[in-house]
Design brief:
It contains three helices and 44 strands. The strands form eleven sheets. Strands 1, 2, 4, 5, 7 and 8 form a six-stranded antiparallel β-sheet that branches. Strands 37, 38, 39, 41, 42 and 43 form a six-stranded antiparallel β-sheet that branches. Strands 11, 12, 14, 15 and 16 form a five-stranded antiparallel β-sheet that branches. Residues about 5-25 have low confidence and may be disordered.
Length: about 525
C-alpha cells in the first residue's frame, strides 16, 4: 500500500511539472500573460490591508522587479513582490511600510512580468488603489529634451514635490511625492493626481534611488511651481552639470614640465607661480594647466585661487625623464581648405626660423606666414589651391623648443588638397527665428564634425563637407562664447537653449544642398 502511495505522488508531481513546461509542437506562444483578477480589485478605495494578490491566465515569472516596478507615491521601503511558489499563476505584493491615509497609489509593473515558458512580457500593467474614499483623477503630461548627450539617457524619472514642502536641497535627500517614467522619446504622463501646487524635476536616475546625485546624474527643472489642474503640459530640458571646479591632480610630467589637472571649466582661473624660477611658459589646454619652467629648487609653490583650496606647495622630484624635442605636424596628408597646418612639438616652441622653412608646390616655392599660439605651437598660413600637393621642409635648426633644443635633421610634411568637386556644400536657412546669437553644429555619428562661428542671423553656409549623412544642432549662444553652456541647478541657471531637428541631411559631392528648417522652439 505504501509503495502505491509513492507511485501516485510521483505521477502527480510529474503531471504538475509537465503542465509548467513548454508544450512540444505547434506554433510558438507569442501572447503575453493576462491579468484575470487582483485581490483587492484594481481601483479599490478605502484599502486598509498590507497585501495584494494578482492572478494571471498562465504561469508567470518576475524579471528585475527593483528596476522595472515603479510605485507612486514612492515608499520608504520597496514592497516585497514575489511569485506564490515555483511555476505559479499568482503574485503577491506585501507592503513593508504603512500606507498614507487618503492617498491614491499607482503600481506600474513596466516589463517585469513575463510568461514562464517563452518570456513574453506583459508591458505596463498598472494597478491603482486608494487608502481613502476616492481615486484621484487629474493628470499632467509633457516632454523631456535631453541636451548635448552623445548617448541619450535611459530611464528618465520625472518627479513632483508638493510646493509647500519644496526647497532646493530636497532633491538630494527626499523622494518626490509622485513619480513617473518618460518613454524612449522623452514623453511622460502623470495620472491620478490630486489638485494642488507642485514643483517638477526630471532625473536620469541611474541608481534608482529617486534622488539627485550631482556630478553623476543629469537633471531638468523649472523655477516656478506648477498648479494642477491649471497646468496640463510641461516641457523640461535635461542636462548634465559641469563638475564642481576643483584641482584633481598635480603631476610632474618631466624635468621641466608640471601639469595641474582640473575638473570643470578653468576659463577665468589664474594660476600663479610663487617660487623663484629662471624662466617659464604656461597655458591652459583641454582642462589642464601646463607649466614649463627652469629652476634650481626642489619645490614649486603655486597659488590656485579656488574656494576651500589652500596655497599649494608642490615638491617635485628630480625626474630622470629628459625633455627631448620631438616635432610633429597637425594637418598632414589629405586635408580640406578649412584645415590648418600646425607645427607642434613635445614641448612649447620658442621660435621658428622662417629662413630655414620651405614650402613647395611642384618644386615651386610658395609664400607662407607663421603665427605663434599661446601654447607654443605655430600655425602656417598660405594660399591653398585645390587639386594640388604641397611639401613642407623644416631644415636643421629651424625649430627651437623651450629647453633650447633644435631639430637636428630635416623634417618633411606632405599636404594634399583634393579637387573642390569632391566636397559638398550646405546652405542652411533657419525660419521663424528671432535675432539672437546662434551657431550651428554639424553632427555625424553623435560627434561634432563642424561648428560655425556665432552670428546673429538665420543664414549659414557650411562648405567643403565630405559626402555623408549629417544632422544639425542649433544653439542660442546667449553669452557669445561660441560653445554650449550647461545649466546649474542650485544657481537656478537653465542650460543654453538648443534644438536638434529630426531631419537627416545628405551631402553629395559637387552639390549644393539648400535646406530650410522651421525652429519654433528657438523663436520663443
Amino acid at each position: 500500500m505504501r509503495n502505491l502511495l509513492y507511485i501516485i505522488l510521483f505521477l502527480f508531481l510529474l503531471n504538475a511539472c509537465a503542465r509548467v513546461g513548454r508544450p512540444t509542437g505547434g506554433d510558438k506562444d507569442v501572447t503575453p500573460p493576462k491579468l484575470l483578477k487582483s485581490t483587492p480589485a484594481n481601483g479599490k478605495v478605502n484599502f486598509k490591508g498590507q497585501e495584494m494578490i494578482l492572478e494571471f491566465d498562465e504561469y508567470v515569472t518576475l524579471k528585475d522587479p527593483n528596476k522595472n516596478i515603479l510605485i507612486s507615491p514612492p515608499l520608504k521601503n520597496q514592497p516585497v513582490i514575489s511569485p506564490l511558489g515555483i511555476g505559479t499563476k499568482r503574485l503577491k505584493i506585501k507592503f513593508q511600510d504603512s500606507l498614507n491615509p487618503n492617498t491614491t497609489y499607482q503600481i506600474n509593473f513596466g516589463e517585469s512580468i513575463a510568461d514562464f515558458n517563452e518570456g513574453n512580457k506583459l508591458n505596463n500593467l498598472q494597478l491603482v488603489f486608494s487608502t481613502g474614499p476616492v481615486i484621484d483623477s487629474l493628470s499632467l503630461k509633457g516632454k523631456i529634451k535631453a541636451l548635448h548627450f552623445e548617448k541619450k539617457p535611459e530611464n528618465i524619472l520625472v518627479g513632483l514635490y508638493e510646493a509647500k514642502d519644496f526647497t532646493d536641497s530636497i532633491v538630494y535627500k527626499q523622494k518626490p511625492y509622485y513619480v513617473t517614467l518618460a518613454d524612449a522619446d522623452g514623453y511622460f504622463k502623470f495620472k491620478h493626481l490630486k489638485a494642488g501646487n507642485y514643483h517638477i524635476i526630471a532625473l536620469a536616475d541611474e541608481n534608482r534611488d529617486y534622488k539627485y546625485q550631482q556630478g553623476k546624474e543629469s537633471i531638468g527643472f523649472i523655477d516656478k511651481d506648477i498648479s494642477i489642474p491649471q497646468d496640463s503640459l510641461i516641457n523640461l530640458n535635461l542636462f548634465k552639470e559641469y563638475p564642481v571646479f576643483s584641482v584633481e591632480d598635480i603631476e610632474q610630467k618631466s624635468r621641466y614640465h608640471v601639469v595641474v589637472k582640473f575638473r570643470g571649466h578653468p576659463d577665468s582661473l589664474k594660476v600663479t607661480v610663487k617660487s623663484p624660477i629662471k624662466r617659464q611658459q604656461h597655458f591652459f589646454e583641454q582642462g589642464q594647466w601646463h607649466l614649463w619652467y627652469q629652476s634650481d629648487s626642489d619645490s614649486l609653490e603655486l597659488s590656485i585661487p579656488l574656494p576651500h583650496y589652500r596655497l599649494k606647495t608642490y615638491y617635485r622630484k628630480r625626474s630622470n625623464k629628459k625633455d627631448s624635442l620631438q616635432v610633429f605636424f597637425k594637418g598632414k596628408g589629405r586635408i580640406s581648405p578649412l584645415d590648418s597646418v600646425i607645427i607642434a612639438a613635445s614641448m612649447p616652441l620658442e621660435q621658428i626660423d622662417s629662413s630655414k622653412v620651405r614650402l613647395q608646390r611642384d618644386s615651386i616655392s610658395v609664400v607662407f606666414s607663421l603665427k605663434q599660439l599661446p601654447e607654443g605651437k605655430f600655425v602656417m598660413s598660405f594660399e591653398k589651391e585645390s587639386g594640388k600637393s604641397y611639401r613642407l621642409y623644416l631644415l636643421p635648426e629651424a625649430v627651437t623648443g623651450f629647453t633650447g633644443q633644435a631639430n637636428k635633421d630635416t623634417l618633411t610634411n606632405n599636404i594634399i588638397l583634393p579637387k573642390i568637386d569632391v566636397y559638398g556644400k550646405l546652405i542652411l536657412r533657419l525660419n521663424n527665428v528671432l535675432q539672437k546669437p546662434l551657431f550651428i553644429e554639424l553632427i555625424k555619428n553623435n560627434k561634432i564634425v563642424r561648428k560655425t562661428p556665432t552670428q546673429t542671423g538665420s543664414n549659414f553656409v557650411l562648405p567643403f563637407l565630405s559626402p555623408d549623412k549629417y544632422t544639425v544642432r542649433v544653439v542660442i549662444d546667449t553669452n557669445k562664447n561660441n560653445r554650449w553652456d550647461t545649466g546649474n541647478y542650485l544657481q537656478h541657471i537653465q542650460p543654453e537653449q538648443s534644438i536638434e531637428p529630426d531631419k537627416v541631411i545628405e551631402i553629395r559631392a559637387n552639390w549644393d544642398v539648400n535646406q530650410s528648417l522651421m525652429l519654433d522652439e528657438l523663436s520663443q
